[in-house]
Structures are given as structure tokens and as C-alpha cells.
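ok, trying the design again with the full structure, not the truncated one.
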């Protein structure tokens, strides 16, 4: 199953209100889009969302986790994949959503911060464990459905195929030498994933 947005284990006290969570994510997303990841602090989120700092900590352990959850919410990948009629169309929709998120200002900001961060910072771990892992897992499931429906040929090495799909996306994101577009996603899929004979 695809991974969910990062959050700590449930704590005692009042049950979590989805409206409060949505307000926190909306505040973090607005801060992310306007000022980048450095603008997403617990204090700034609390002020913008109209909640207390302890309320935010009931949902997430730190500001990078909130920022990554807000970024994940912008991708729309799960909803896009579910709306598709075939597994192959769902796969394209999933990767289109990832490309759209990377091409947006928030995506470029996340990429810049992750590229500059050390590999074991909270931000880098959140990006690797949540965004990359979640989308990779979802793509694996869609590829398996495509194989089961004989829409694509079974690969000799599924993990290598997943690396070959996401590697060029991350390379363009981090290097910025070429745009990340849906056309690029189409070419990438057609090159990496052979159609069933």
C-alpha cells in the first residue's frame, strides 16, 4: 500500500480533528509556496493556521515533517491514479502528478533544500521516506497491475525499472537543466517500460 503522510503515533487526549489537520497543512503549503522550506516553521504555521504549537505537535514531530506532508498533499497522485480507467492510464496519471508537483514552485523549493541538506537531516529523511517511497510503492503496484493485465512486458528487475523511472525525474528536478513535463513523462514511460508483445 502507498505510504501515508508522516505523523507520529496517536497520543492521549481529544481525538484529532480533520479540519484542524487541514488548516495546518493549508498554512504550511501557503508558507512553502511563498517563502520556501525555510519559511515553514512551527511558529509560523501556528500563527497562520490559528492553532497552538502543541496542537501541531499532536500531528507531526517537527516542521520538516509538516512541510513534507503539505508537499505530498499537492501532488494529487493517488486521486489521479484512482480516476484512471486502466492500470496503464493510472500509471501515467500517477507520474504526471509527480511531474506536476516537481514543476511547481513548491517542488523546486523542496528540491533545492533537499539537495543542500545532509542525507540524515529530518527534511532529507522525510523526502526520502515519504515522498519517494510513497510514490515508488504506488508505481510498483500499478506496474504489477499492468503486468497482470498483459499491458506491459514483465521486467527482469522491477527495482531497476523503478529506479529508471524516478531517476530521470529526480535528476531533472535537482539539476534543473531541462523542464519536467508530461511529455517527458510519456517519453520516459515509453522508453523504460516495454509494451507487452
Amino acid at each position: 500500500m502507498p505510504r501515508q503522510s508522516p505523523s507520529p503515533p496517536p497520543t492521549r487526549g481529544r481525538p484529532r480533528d480533520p479540519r484542524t489537520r487541514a488548516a495546518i497543512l493549508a498554512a504550511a503549503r501557503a508558507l512553502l509556496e511563498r517563502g520556501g522550506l525555510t519559511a515553514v516553521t512551527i511558529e509560523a504555521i501556528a500563527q497562520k493556521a490559528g492553532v497552538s504549537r502543541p496542537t501541531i505537535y499532536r500531528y507531526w514531530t517537527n516542521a520538516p515533517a509538516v512541510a513534507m506532508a503539505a508537499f505530498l498533499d499537492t501532488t494529487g497522485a493517488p486521486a489521479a491514479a484512482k480516476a484512471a480507467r486502466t492500470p496503464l492510464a493510472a500509471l501515467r496519471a500517477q507520474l504526471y502528478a509527480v511531474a506536476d508537483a516537481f514543476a511547481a514552485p513548491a517542488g523546486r523549493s523542496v528540491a533545492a533544500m533537499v539537495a543542500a541538506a545532509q542525507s540524515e537531516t529530518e527534511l532529507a529523511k522525510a523526502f526520502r521516506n515519504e515522498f519517494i517511497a510513497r510514490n515508488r510503492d504506488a508505481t510498483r503496484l500499478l506496474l504489477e497491475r499492468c503486468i497482470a493485465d498483459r499491458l506491459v512486458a514483465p521486467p527482469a528487475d522491477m527495482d531497476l525499472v523503478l529506479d529508471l523511472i524516478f531517476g530521470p525525474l529526480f535528476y531533472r528536478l535537482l539539476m534543473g537543466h531541462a523542464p519536467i513535463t508530461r511529455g517527458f513523462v510519456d517519453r520516459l514511460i515509453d522508453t523504460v517500460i516495454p509494451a507487452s508483445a
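Keeping the full-length input from now on. Residues 75-192 form a domain with the Tetracycline Repressor; domain 2 fold (CATH 1.10.357.10).
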